[in-house]
TrEMBL record:
The keyword Magnesium does not apply. Keywords: 4Fe-4S, Iron, Iron-sulfur, Metal-binding, Oxidoreductase. PANTHER family: COB--COM HETERODISULFIDE REDUCTASE IRON-SULFUR SUBUNIT A (PTHR43498:SF1), FERREDOXIN:COB-COM HETERODISULFIDE REDUCTASE SUBUNIT A (PTHR43498). It comes from Thiohalocapsa marina. Pfam families: FAD_oxidored. It comes from the Bacteria. The keyword 4Fe-4S applies. GO terms for molecular function: 4 iron, 4 sulfur cluster binding; metal ion binding; oxidoreductase activity. InterPro entries: FAD/NAD-bd_sf, HdrA-like. This is CoB--CoM heterodisulfide reductase iron-sulfur subunit A family protein.
Amino acid sequence: MTEVVATNETILVVGGGISGLTAAIEAAETGKQVVLVEKRPYLGGRVTQLYKYFPKLCFPTCGLEINQRRARQNPNITVLTLAEVTDISGDKGNYKATVRISPRYVNDNCTACGDCAKAVEAEFDDEYNYGLSRRKGAYLPYRMAQPSRYVLDPRIIGTPDADKAKAACKVDAIDLDMQPQDLSFPCGAVIWATGWQPYDAARIQPYGYDRFPNVITSVEFERMADPNGPYAGRIVRPSDGREAKKVAFIQCAGSRDRNHLLHCSRICCMASLKQATYVSDAYKDAADVTVYYIDLRAIDRFEDFYNKVRAIPQVKYVKSKPASIVADKDGNPVVHGVDTEGYNRYAERFDLVVLAIGMEPAVPKDGFPVPIVVNREGFIEAAPENGGIFAAGGASDALDVNRAVQHATGAALRAIQVVNSVRGMEV
């Protein structure tokens, strides 16, 4: 059974992505006790699913590994994975949190050898790769996952596959009798770092995401380009595996639209410019990339990156929000629209179309276990009514990784001030 030792000077961090991980580390390294709750089986969040960062086009694994190590080695941090906060009661400086932990069916004996996965036959869509590949019913979420322990999918519990996994384990790490567990503990402040989720592209009916396999989202394309991803880094058409040399990127797919997301997600332009380099690097002079855009948002330090990508001759830009996408008899997506500079109609055929979908809060407005002030888009506001509950990173707004980390550090400082004031009152 998991136990949590906490007081009203403990800081609860909800969400173990880059923002939650940052906030937890910053608070813990000042000597504060932190309970870090993450609903996935591992820490790192959506950053772990990125191939490269913009503007430097470096890999997230380096900085992520450092933060994972800092968290792992800090005795002030208690990590609860496969866990969700179900209730928060009380007031600033004196909260009581209730957390439900779902069973992993794998205990601390696990050495991540993978024998259980070899024994299991059942396969499921791999959520880490956004369903672009399949994984076993016993799995390590990704190669750098922390904690470095396998997970049994609950759908195999009670089936012969579960027994096979248990029989294959040489270190007695498979525990098929694990049950959900509810924990309640005190805390003085809460950092809400549940991040963002990609907007559902299937809701943008004219673009045919749910009908045409060669229309994919920007987050799926990120996994496609990753050498450790479902296509081993090959830029291809999901329908037939052929090389996708002619690629369209459609900006503001569902964003700045009264029928979908009203807000601009800020990072989509830079993400698509970054992804355009994936195609040009993969196919060199044979690459043919078109970026359809309303406006290109490249501010501050991103201006140089924008100019660098703009200079790539294989990448061209059309100022337009495409009206629709259809597919020809060979499965090629055909983009229809009118450019807003020359007002010329176009019907352009591509190998692959990538929708730059927007960011929306991972927790819906009515999904919080405590009253909290959110804005029109569902992001958490910095409001006095929230008491000792502070948003961090993508829970507060659509932010890139750099700004999310900065924001999380600020949230940690505010939470530290709250628990310090508790100590002051007790003295």
